[in-house]
Write a structure and sequence with these properties.
- The protein is an alpha/beta fold.
- The protein has one domain (2-229): 3-Layer(aba) Sandwich (Dihydrofolate Reductase, subunit A), CATH 3.40.430.
- Helix content is 24%, strand content 29%.
- The radius of gyration is 17 Å and the shape is globular.
């Protein structure tokens, strides 16, 4: 599993200048579901593929989730199944809905970064900063969501070179739509769920998977690949 983690983070072309290298990593069922029909969380990864996920976390500088994933799963975003450093947790939260008692705020040395926009409430910012978060206000899209390209540029300025994106579906779709993904690691569990699909929007036809590798870990299939983007 160490070789697989390395292949997703090292033996690949460098990311474009001025932003970190971005790896999307998530688990899905055989029919492409990442959650139940009512957005209920699902434990899809087997023990072997879960260990791989934590190896990948340890090899990245930071790990990012959307606010929907944080509110639904309340993840720790730490490295627990293997030795290694914890990545810095980042939440894309355009309206500052992150609860001040979220689990990512219970480990002060990691100083979670919450990316938001100018439209977010100032009082909410004060509450989250008092709880140990660092709030970063960024430009927003037409939908008043955090501009992910601006976020990546800011992360690069802070020395973050490798970013792991774990979900949820809207964040994954937004990174793909913005051509901001360099590689993917997908765990496919042998289950049929009929739940929430991973992609919240169509995948851009300009993106192609290259250097595709298939591995089996326990009962799970692991797909690792780089993203190649056609010229705009």
């Amino acid at each position: 599993m160490g070789d697989m983690a390395a292949s997703a983070t090292s033996a690949t072309p460098p990311a474009p200048a001025l932003r970190p290298r971005v790896t999307i990593c998530y688990a899905q069922s055989l029919d492409g579901s990442i959650a139940g029909a009512e957005r209920t969380p699902l434990a899809l990864s087997g023990p072997e593929s879960l260990t791989l996920t934590h190896q990948l976390r340890a090899s990245h500088d930071a790990i990012l989730v959307g606010i929907g994933t944080l509110l639904t799963d309340n993840p720790q975003l730490t490295v627990r199944h293997v030795p290694g450093p914890h990545p810095r947790p980042i939440v894309a939260d355009s309206r500052l809905r992150c609860p001040p008692d979220a689990r990512i705020l219970q480990d002060p040395p990691r100083s979670p970064l919450i990316a938001t926009t100018a439209h977010a409430d100032a009082d909410r910012q004060s509450i989250l900063e008092a709880a140990g978060a660092r709030v970063l206000r960024l430009p927003c899209t037409a939908e008043r969501r955090v501009d992910l390209a601006a976020l990546l540029a800011s992360l690069a300025e802070q020395g973050i070179q490798r970013l792991m994106v774990e979900g949820g579906g809207e964040i994954i779709s937004s990174f793909l739509a913005g051509r901001l993904v360099d590689s993917i690691v997908i765990t496919i569990a042998p289950r049929l769920i009929g739940g929430l699909p991973v992609l919240a929007a169509p995948v851009p036809v300009a993106g192609r998977l290259v250097n595709v590798v298939y591995d089996r870990l326990g009962d799970d299939l692991i797909v690792t690949a780089d993203l190649a983007w056609d010229p705009e």
